[in-house]
Amino acid sequence: MSTISRVRRIPLVGGLLATAVAAVLLLTTVLATPASAHGSVVDPASRNYGCWQRWGGDFQNPNMATEDPMCWQAWQDNPSAMWNWNGLFREGVAGNHQGAIPNGQLCSGGRTEGGRYRSMDTVGAWRTTDVSNNFRVRFFDQASHGADYIRVYVTKQGFNALTSPLRWEDLELAGQIGNTPASRWTPTTGGVQIDIPANAPGRTGRHIVYTIWQASHLDQSYYLCSDVNFGGSGPTNPPTTPPTTPPTTPPTTTPPTTPPAGTAGCTAAYRLTGQWSGGFQGEVQVTAGTTAIKSWTVTWTYPGGQQIASSWNATVTTSGSTVTARNANYNGNLPAGGTASFGFTGSGSATTPTLTCTATT
After folding, report:
1. Contact by Cβ (8 Å): 77, 181
2. Taking residues 269-286, what's their average pLDDT?
């Protein structure tokens, strides 16, 4: 690959609506400022533009939790990330994109804007757009500032977007344009747009397209993740049912205070992040004990027939009313006192079960 030279949870209904209204007002103010460029990849849609496009007029619809769970977690984390779909940028990077943005945070621009877009980094089954190996990326520039350059990268064949956080080393350059003033872009409603040809030979299946727009008016760099399916026959939907393979019967006793040789302790905390008629969303935070761990497993039993519908950042299986969540391959190693989180949606009445956490060194 060539050198690639603020967050809070809100109540689901009232708070979400209030935040959305505030976000719209903020967006209006921002877009009225001539000095600021604002834009995004609109085809194949960037993650937050796609969530805004599909759900901006119906963002409180509980069906989103099962029909589009990656957007659901993003709307709940920070609705402003979708209302401000055209503001995912950093300033003053000076072309050192890799130095400014850590691995695992590429889709949020390194948790830019105080972490507003952090949900874009969540690993999981984002909606995809079907593309061929020769495709084009359409970029929309609302402020008509043009580009010093736009670079389009595609993940390497073998990268698993369902389980792996995006890293710089996972990307290969697939297309680019150089300095292109807005006068050479195509006028369209609300701004200008331009198509960047891209070629990703040998790609099949799900991939991430990563686009960097270096706006011309200031040192302002935009970072956009779009999810695509090479060779598919239509947009792919996230899974809505959990795996059916029953797990090994989980332990029914609390791990001892002093772990035996080869194991280390961990704790897990469960919290509800949203609920609606017939369903809910939750999050579990795992915390390593006084010893570093290499993997963790969290189990719990629902009391009233609740079922897991979808999950992210962990492998979650069910057997009857018992749920077993095992770390993903990127978040099992935790230092002493370190934490990892995973989330899920479920059907049934919301409840807060008792968790058991086990870990290995």
Report:
1. no
2. 84
